[in-house]
Amino acid sequence: MNNSDVRIVEVSPRDGLQNEKTMLPPDIKIALIDRLSATGLKTIETTSFVSARWVPQLADAAEVFRRIRKVPGVTYPVLVPNEQGYRIAREAGATEVSVFTAASEAFNRANINASIEESLQRFAPVLQEANAEGVKVRGYVSTALGCPYQGEVPIEDVVNVAKRLYEMGCYEISVADTIGVGTPAKARAMLHAVAQEIPMRALAVHFHDTYGQALANILACLEEGVRVVDSAVSGTGGCPYAKGASGNVASEDVVYMLHGMGLQTGINLDMLVATGAWLSAQLNKPTASRVTKARTTA
Ligand code: HMG
Ligand code: MG
């Protein structure tokens, strides 16, 4: 990857849909992923192999994963919370998975019913099996800039959890502002501290746009050196166990900004906009992407 290349990790089929009350049928999810695959995106987080009781929207994970068109050169990671999820994901054909924990105890308890330490212990066999099977594992650190229960989250807690995941064998660590409360200087300071322990090329940023700070935070982190950015078309998203969290930063807006800065993504913005507009129509709600709004309203 060239230093002027940025990889977008498209999370709309997973983060984007997991909190949606309108239950989408598998065919629509498959159509979404297939459309995204045609835009030039290289990484599409496809679904979650979690408990259907906890996230009913993604109960069809295995069917969706099996039926999507796997485009060569595109990877389709899936979220797994434990070994059980890992095994089901593998049976469905997954070749890359993401594990997820947080920098704050209370959020982790609400989200996966485990302490941070317990969650890391749950991931140990996942990483061992994945390593033996040649499956790549991505790690998320939620609440990296604030927690809905605890409020402030010390930077050293983010660094410690990120480091543990990296040492366990995650190839990439995505530091996440789950509830979208961060501001640019804080985001940059957090990323800077994490990058003292983990090479910048193995880091990604994941911003929710609750307070309208996401693009500014991404810019600050790009200036700090990050080159992997998570986002979701139409600005969909939010964690059901993070009260007050709104959608992810919209992929269309991120790509527009990156291309305007001369950074390459390999993504066709027109196709991304069309896909975002199509998704918001399926969800019967207005897009949260400013670029899509600007380009699709007469
Ligand atoms: P639990 O109830 O504590 O677990 O849930 P358990 O081990 O007692 O199992 C309870 C039941 O779930 C059992 O079934 C298990 O078999 C089943 P029962 O015997 O009652 O019929 N089960 C599973 N079923 C399917 N797939 C599995 C699985 N594991 C157990 N993998 C558990 C613990 C982790 C399962 C639960 O808390 C869970 O699924 N949580 C997922 C929550 C979630 O997906 N949150 C959103 C994603 S994280 C996020 O959005 C943040 C992120 O975007 C970054 C950011 O923005 O910060 C990544
Ligand atoms: Mg998220």
UniProtKB/TrEMBL annotation:
Report which residue ranges the record marks as coiled coil: none
What are the recorded GO MF terms, alphabetically? Answer: lyase activity
- Can you give the residue ranges of the Pyruvate carboxyltransferase domain? 6-273
What keyword terms does UniProt attach to this protein? Lyase, Metal-binding
Stretches that traverse the bilayer: none
What protein family is recorded? Belongs to the HMG-CoA lyase family.
What is the name of the protein in this document?
Hydroxymethylglutaryl-CoA lyase
